[in-house]
Amino acid sequence: MVEPDAVVESVPAAVPAVEPEVEPEPEPEPPVEPVLEAPVEPEPPVETEPPLELELEAEPEPEPLVEPTPRDEPGDVAPTAPRTVPASVVGTMEPTEPAVVVQGLRKSFGESVAVEDIDLTVPAGSFYGLVGPNGAGKTTVLSMIAGLLKPDAGTIVIAGEDATRHPHRAKRHLGILPDRLRTFDRLTGRQLLAYHGLLRRLDRAVVEKRVDDLAQAFDLTNALSRPVSDYSLGMTKKVMLAAAMVHAPRVLVLDEPFESVDPVSSSAILEILRSYVAAGGTVVLSSHGMDLVEQVCDRVAVMVAGQVLADGTVAEVRGELTLEQRFVQLAGDVRDVESLEWLHTFSD
Length: 348
Hints:
The chain is of the alpha/beta class. It has one domain (87-335): Rossmann fold. The chain contains 13 helices and ten strands. It has helices spanning 2-22, 43-58, 62-66, 69-77, 138-145, 167-171, 189-199, 204-217, 233-245, 263-278, 290-296, 314-318, 323-331; strands spanning 98-109, 112-123, 127-131, 153-158, 161-162, 174-177, 251-255, 282-286, 299-304, 307-313. Helix 4 packs parallel to helix 8 (204-217) and helix 7 (189-199) packs across helix 8 (204-217).
């Protein structure tokens, strides 16, 4: 009878052997693993999308800065489309208010008197020419108007601003092309024009557009990527004139702007300046070309030995003569050719 008991005991012993096989049942749990939670990963895209949306929203904000083109269009459009240039080129200056007023201006260099008590009035919206022989004092006068030289005496008023008391305010209205060109010639043409625009505190987007427009008007587009040191003298003069106009000033002071410039470029520059004047801007220039001055200027002043001998409209100054004849008459014909008789003997 003992044997059956052993059998009974052996049966329960076999049962625990089956129980371990039930333990693997937890394996179905892997489907319930957090792998199902992995799809929650779309959250990162949700986090990344807002920054993209913010960037897209941030981009339109600069547009309002470029959008107020009433001030941007003058410099951009003036060179090529005079009829579309808005009056903002000359700000709120009244047409009857003179652009430049010079009174009692005097300048000496040591014992040499360069400019002696001259008075000039340049109406707004005019093309004003300053002519005279070499050494007459033209460059000295323009340098004092531009703020490059300090006068010994006298007053200069630019667009209603006293240049003696408030030079910074007066210079904001000026664009200057000096006679002796000094520039950062290691910069490219584009860098030089952009530098001038940024110095005038223009928005970068405005500067870039104006640089492109001016380059196209002055036929400098293909040269913008080259250093200014590689430019010819005529090209350098054109890029410096473009730099003087990039901020759409009320008054342009130009010393010999057409010197060393080819006839085609001169014609293009004249068209740009006429467009600028037609919009209300004022040009004050010096030149030795009497025909050019007579052709483009509304008013002219003839300087000799630091003094203004004639001033008024071109018709008033020239009278019954040509402007060149009148100029020679005022300057005086002091040539002495008799002392050069030896020149006719020729050397062997």
